[in-house]
């Protein structure tokens, strides 16, 4: 549809910024009518809102006694009509007829309701418009009324969108409706409202048994304490009764209180350079999220691909992969792209749950979420792996070396996953994508704003700094903090956005886990675990390939009982000590664990998947449609490892 850009520069949409207006543009469908055409009759169901792009219409009501129609209003270019029936859910109260040839933009009721739910400012704008029109019909001039009356009308809940309905939507969010197929669900069924007390009693019981078992095995007191701490934390993470960040903070705190290590070691994660690296990267993500930079980049990439199903699924997947180092937050990327994807599905008239709809959603999940491990700054959990590597190994890892180590695994995983999406969700019909629409959206966004330019400067600085790290040898943490400073000085980030936009909870978790990992290393617990595990793993340690496949399966299974960050902590601390005996660089193990850490057989396993479900309002796909791909995901991980092993052997990562 070649919609006039001025069609969104009207009072009813004045409450929306340029980014939301650009996102709104594809929602409209262009229709044309000749002069004298009746667009809808009085009594018809209200199914659309119309904006006049060119021409004029007459609004009238026919008296029941057959007299001449009563003209209620005449509208011209940039005026809108039909919104009353959408808001009140009652039949049309008047007939609308074209006075001249008209070109109109039509917005369906489904998308209209969604916009009201997402943008309260739009609801207020429409309420004001309604009050003015009702006043005009009753013979009153709304502009002569006292200000407090207009304010009251503006604050009135819009029909069809009461606050109670919003509250109900929040209570029955897609996350809340997902089946709780975990240990926590079973536990809740057994103990109902006494879950916290029951968990504490069960944990105490497990700790007592574990204490006697470890002591009888001859474990040192410090080792026994650390193992009991991590066992208790694993139980609390599994049942998900308390904030995972709070549980993580208990790790170093308990280690100090039980005198298993010193405070300097237990809390050393908060002075680790990777902690400051995550801080800078989180600030960069928060800054980009406040501008239209990501949306602009996504449109530019989509513009380069063919307007068919295969081309667009590939476009979304590659767009996500390209933007991964630009927006270094996997959940942030998925959260930003999901509403855009839902709007695209509506624009293309794709039925919810159709193969094309599911395929587009899964290609977004692949590119914007699951390719995070390809870049060192692709996700915050990548820094968890970096922080848990032996110090000498971590110091040898730069942005470039990480990418080259992960590239063969990443490209094999991307190609196999994309082919699986096309095979499992085929679509042979054409898509209604028009390049003119993308051009129109870019025109609505306009030239780069000052905030976008500052974000682009900060992003470019960090990327160039990371890419040239092998030349200047400046730690990536200080590069990312300079980017943070650029955003702060450039007023893209304020004190308020720093408090709300940065994931401080994850920073607490990261610092706690790295510090606890250092405590395990300093006490010699990791070496002890290595000696204990080697006889048990003898069957998989005869072959490096089999061992790496076993590592992927091990992490995959851990994710059924632990959140991703604790699973990576447990996985790295137990497997890394075995790498020297297996002649493996620990970086390979870390990258494989990142690859295998995102299953979604159970929806609650994958935060990115849940963000996609919520962001698309469950209109693009249902979980049962994607469960097959979730199972195939595990197989693809193993095949990708098989493809990457010869490369790792060639470059000396497997020796």
Uncertain residue ranges:
1-7, 142-192
Strand order of the largest sheet: 1-8-3-6
Shape: elongated
Count of extended strands: 8
Assign the structural class, choosing from mainly alpha, mainly beta, alpha/beta, alpha+beta, or little secondary structure: mainly alpha
- The average pLDDT score comes to 80
Radius of gyration based on Cα positions: 29 Å
| Largest sheet features | 4 strands, antiparallel
Query: Separation of termini?
Result: 58 Å
How many H/I helices? 33
What's the number of structural domains? 3
User: Considering DSSP H and I runs of 4 or more, what fraction of the residues is helical?
Assistant: 55-70%
Main location: membrane
Biased composition (Basic and acidic residues): 140-150
Protein name: Cyclic nucleotide-binding domain-containing protein
GO cellular component, one term: membrane
Question: How are the elements arranged and paired?
Answer:
Elements: H1 18-24, E1 29-33, E2 38-40, E3 48-54, E4 57-61, E5 70-75, E6 80-81, H2 83-88, E7 95-98, E8 102-108, H3 109-118, H4 120-137, H5 147-155, H6 163-171, H7 174-177, H8 183-191, H9 195-216, H10 221-239, H11 244-257, H12 263-266, H13 273-289, H14 293-302, H15 309-323, H16 330-347, H17 355-370, H18 380-388, H19 391-395, H20 399-424, H21 435-445, H22 450-467, H23 469-472, H24 476-489, H25 495-501, H26 504-522, H27 525-536, H28 544-558, H29 564-575, H30 579-582, H31 586-595, H32 607-615, H33 623-651
Helix pairs in contact: 1-21, 3-4, 4-5, 9-10, 10-11, 11-26, 13-18, 13-24, 14-15, 14-21, 15-17, 16-17, 16-32, 17-20, 18-26, 18-29, 18-31, 20-31, 20-33, 22-24, 26-29, 28-29, 28-31, 28-33, 29-31
């Amino acid at each position: 549809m070649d919609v006039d850009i001025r069609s969104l520069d009207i009072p009813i949409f004045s409450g929306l910024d340029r980014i939301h207006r650009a996102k709104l543009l594809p929602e409209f469908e262009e229709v044309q009518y000749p002069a004298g055409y009746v667009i809808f009759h009085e009594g018809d169901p209200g199914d659309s809102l119309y904006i006049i792009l060119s021409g004029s219409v007459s609004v009238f009501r026919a008296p029941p006694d057959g007299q001449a129609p009563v003209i209620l209003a005449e509208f011209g270019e940039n005026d809108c009509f039909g919104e009353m029936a959408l808001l009140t859910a009652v039949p049309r109260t008047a007939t609308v007829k074209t006075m001249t040839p008209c070109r109109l933009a039509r917005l369906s009721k489904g998308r209209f309701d969604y916009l009201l739910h997402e943008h309260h400012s739009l609801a207020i704008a429409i309420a004001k418009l309604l009050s003015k029109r009702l006043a005009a019909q009753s013979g009153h001039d709304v502009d002569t009324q006292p200000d407090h009356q207009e304010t009251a009308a503006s604050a009135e809940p819009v029909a069809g969108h009461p606050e109670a309905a919003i509250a109900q939507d929040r209570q029955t969010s897609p996350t809340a409706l997902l089946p709780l197929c975990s240990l926590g669900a079973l536990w809740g069924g057994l103990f109902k409202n006494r879950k916290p007390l029951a968990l504490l009693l069960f944990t105490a019981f497990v700790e007592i048994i574990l204490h006697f078992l470890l002591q009888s095995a001859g474990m040192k007191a410090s080792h026994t304490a650390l193992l009991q701490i991590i066992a208790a934390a694993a139980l609390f993470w599994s049942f998900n009764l308390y904030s995972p960040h709070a549980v993580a903070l208990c790790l170093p705190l308990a280690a100090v209180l039980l005198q298993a290590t010193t405070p300097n070691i237990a809390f050393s994660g908060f002075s680790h350079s990777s902690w400051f690296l995550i801080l800078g990267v989180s600030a960069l993500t928060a800054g980009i999220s406040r501008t239209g930079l990501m949306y602009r980049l996504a449109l530019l990439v989509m513009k380069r691909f063919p307007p068919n199903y295969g081309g667009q699924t590939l476009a979304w997947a590659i767009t996500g992969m390209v933007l991964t180092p630009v927006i270094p937050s996997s959940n942030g990327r998925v959260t930003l792209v999901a509403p855009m994807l839902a709007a695209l599905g509506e624009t293309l008239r794709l039925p919810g749950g159709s193969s094309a709809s599911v395929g587009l959603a899964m290609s977004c999940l692949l590119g914007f979420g699951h390719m995070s491990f390809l870049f060192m700054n692709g996700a915050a959990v990548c820094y968890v792996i970096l922080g848990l590597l032996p110090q000498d190994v971590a110091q040898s890892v730069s942005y470039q070396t990480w990418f080259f180590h992960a590239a063969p695994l990443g490209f094999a995983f991307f190609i196999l996953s994309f082919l699986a999406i096309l095979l499992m969700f085929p679509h042979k019909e054409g898509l209604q994508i028009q390049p003119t629409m993308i051009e129109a959206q870019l025109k609505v966004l306009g030239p780069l704003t000052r905030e976008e330019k500052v974000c682009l400067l900060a992003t470019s600085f960090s990327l160039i700094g990371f890419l040239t790290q092998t030349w200047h040898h400046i730690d990536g943490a200080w590069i990312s903090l300079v980017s943070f400073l650029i955003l702060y000085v450039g007023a893209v980030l304020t004190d308020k956005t720093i408090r709300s936009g940065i994931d401080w909870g994850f920073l607490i978790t990261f610092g706690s886990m790295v510090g606890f990992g250092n405590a395990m290393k300093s006490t010699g617990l990791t070496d002890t675990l290595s000696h204990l595990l080697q006889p048990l793993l003898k069957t998989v340690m005869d072959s490096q390939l089999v061992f790496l496949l076993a590592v992927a399966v091990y992490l995959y299974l851990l994710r059924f009982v632990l959140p991703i960050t604790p699973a990576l902590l447990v996985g790295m601390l137990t497997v890394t000590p075995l790498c020297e005996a297996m002649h493996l660089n620990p970086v390979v193990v870390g990258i494989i664990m990142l690859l295998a850490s995102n299953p979604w057989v159970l929806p609650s396993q994958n935060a990115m998947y849940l963000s996609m479900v919520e962001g698309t309002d469950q209109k693009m796909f249902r979980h049962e449609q994607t469960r097959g791909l979730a199972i195939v995901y595990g197989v693809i991980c193993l095949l990708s490892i098989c493809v990457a092993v010869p490369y790792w052997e060639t470059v000396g990562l497997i020796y």
